[in-house]
Amino acid sequence: MPSDPTSLARLSMSLPAELLQQLDAMVEERALPSRSQLIAQLIRNALAEHEAEFRPEETLAGTVTLVYSADHGNVRQQLSATQLDYLKEVISSQHVFLEDDQSLEVLLVQGPAQRLEELCNALRRVRGVRQLKLVTTTALLPPLHEQDEASGKGADDRAEEAAA
Questions:
Q1: Contact call for residues 158 and 148 (beta carbons, < 8 A)
Q2: CA distance 54 to 141
């Protein structure tokens, strides 16, 4: 979505009074300057969900947030093995220990929506996973290893040549 203010379009809508009051309460609670910003955020979230549901082949980026209990034997090893099966989709992960022998792990992911959903389903099957949530966006990560089509050299090779 363009952020250039000259490319903005105006929209007029009618809402039930109670819904408008709830919307205004959200704007205030989030300390946003306008209803427009909140509505734009809600629309972006709905569009990402729509892409995941109706265009499963579309590439999305996002996060998978997991809470799991280490009480269940080798849960960390099983989660790692599952992530290894989805090596192209899992960009990175962050792990922290929580209280009561629980862990929080956040995966940065990118790939076809259907493949990300398969990853989540595989992670959910690991005994000990208590919560899992996938949040996607239609914005993508830049290519991590861009290839120079003419030479077959990657960005690292070009950086070394430039430094020499």
A1: yes
A2: 21
